[in-house]
Amino acid sequence: MRNAPDLIVVGAGVVGASCAYYAARAGLTVTVIDRGSVAGGTTGAGEGNLLVSDKEPGPELELALYSTRLWRELAEALPARIEYEAKGGLVVASDGPAMTALGDFAARQARHGVSTETVPGERLREREPHLAPDLAGGVHYPQDAQVQPALAAAHLLRAAGDRLRLRLGEEVTEVLTGPSGEVRGVRTSAGELHAPYVVNAAGSWGGELARLAGVELPVRPRRGFVLVTEPLPRVVRRKVYAADYVADVASDSAALQTSAVVEGTPAGPVLIGASRERVGFDRSLSVTALRRLAGQAVRLFPVLATVRALRTYAGFRPYLPDHLPAIGPDPRRPGLLHACGHEGAGIGLAPATGRIIAEGLTGSLTGGQLPLDITPFRPDRFDRGDDL
Ligand SMILES: Cc1cc2nc3c(=O)[nH]c(=O)nc-3n(C[C@H](O)[C@H](O)[C@H](O)COP(=O)(O)OP(=O)(O)OC[C@H]3O[C@@H](n4cnc5c(N)ncnc54)[C@H](O)[C@@H]3O)c2cc1C
């Protein structure tokens, strides 16, 4: 590979790795730069749910459905070590009114390509034998899946092959521009690297990277805690969560929201995630958030009441004010592309994002025929005050 790549990707999380993978497959040479390690940002804190079940009909659902298909292809192309499991999701409702609302939501999703199956309360425990006995019912979403995000990011980078160079432990401190304001590369702690295109895949730090390029993108961190139990036999088969989780995800409030998503893992520990609050990059432990998550998980699965939590960790979701990511070229800075701001869905949405970026640069993967309208993700939309 010659010294100057076609493309520089800033960020070696799952989104940057996916951009690099699809760009390399489209024939571009790519250098990925991260000031830390592969998946050392939010990706390493994510649970790896690949969900369509929590998405309202609209642009994010379309992106998720596209990404779901791409994850299935990737599961064939990448090693089994990425722990892709097409295990489906089960959303449950505690009482009649909640079940009616969940049923209406699922019916609207079904009209937009989501597979749904209503499960009456008395049949829930055929699906999940350890669920609380008094739930009103639920909806099964067979398209929901699971992946190990850090391994997925690492294997996407490896699968990019010899068109990819990976530079870790190197911070991008400047985006270099030419006489007409066009991107010419980046300056890092190790010197200059030139390329005609730079992709901002800096996750929760995407706003800072944008500012280095002289443009505004209002990415902010939305903190989340995850509780990890001691290893257990498989007491939770799918990913299971209560219907009110969807409202938490869509909320614009900075205040603490919790609605437990419970899932077993092949290694045994049960993951209970995740809280949501906007408190900047504050990592200090919130006992309130953890207590609420644990209480909600036990209400869904009473068997967890006597199980020990071994550890907890926090991460920062890259939040944009309209809950949609920024994907694509930035008209304010030619040569700059953004692939960030995926909030709590970046693992699920990474393949579609990478493919859109690669397609935008080469037009060679789908012959210019993307299966969705990407204008809702345009990075300059906040300049005009749209969608806020
Ligand atoms: C608790 C929790 C649970 C979650 N669960 C899920 C889930 O189940 N499913 C799902 O889809 N999503 C989930 N998410 C969200 C998901 O983890 C993120 O959306 C996703 O990981 C974002 O990936 P990314 O590659 O954009 O960012 P990151 O993984 O944060 O990568 C960005 C990288 O950019 C690097 N960087 C930043 N600035 C610079 C610079 N100036 N120079 C060099 N490098 C730089 C950072 O070091 C970092 O490695 C969860 C998030 C949290 C916090």
Count the helices. How many? 9
Query: Which cofactors or ions or other ligands sit in this model?
Result: flavin-adenine dinucleotide
**Quaternary state, please?**
single chain
Global outline: globular
Tell me the strand order in the biggest sheet. 5-6-4-14-15-16-13-17
User: Got a strand count?
Assistant: 19
The pLDDT mean sits at 93
Going by helix content, strand content and strand pairing, the class is alpha/beta
Distance between the termini: 43 Å
Low-confidence stretches: none
| Main sheet properties | 8 strands, mixed
The helix fraction, in percent, is: 25-40%
Cα-based radius of gyration, to the nearest Å = 21 Å
* Beta content: 25-35%
Element order, helices and strands?
EHEEHEHEHEEHEEEEEHEEHEEHEEEH
Task: Tell me what you see in this structure.
The chain has helices spanning 14-25, 59-77, 96-110, 124-127, 149-159, 206-212, 245-250, 287-300, 346-362; strands at 7-10, 30-34, 49-50, 89-93, 117-120, 137-141, 145-146, 164-168, 172-177, 183-188, 191-194, 197-200, 220-231, 239-242, 261-264, 269-273, 309-319, 326-329, 336-340. By secondary structure, it is an alpha/beta fold. An eight-stranded mixed β-sheet has the order 5-6-4-14-15-16-13-17. It has a six-stranded mixed β-sheet with strand order 8-2-1-12-19-18. A hairpin with a 4-residue loop joins strand 15 (261-264) and strand 16. The radius of gyration is 21 Å and the shape is globular. The mean pLDDT is 93.
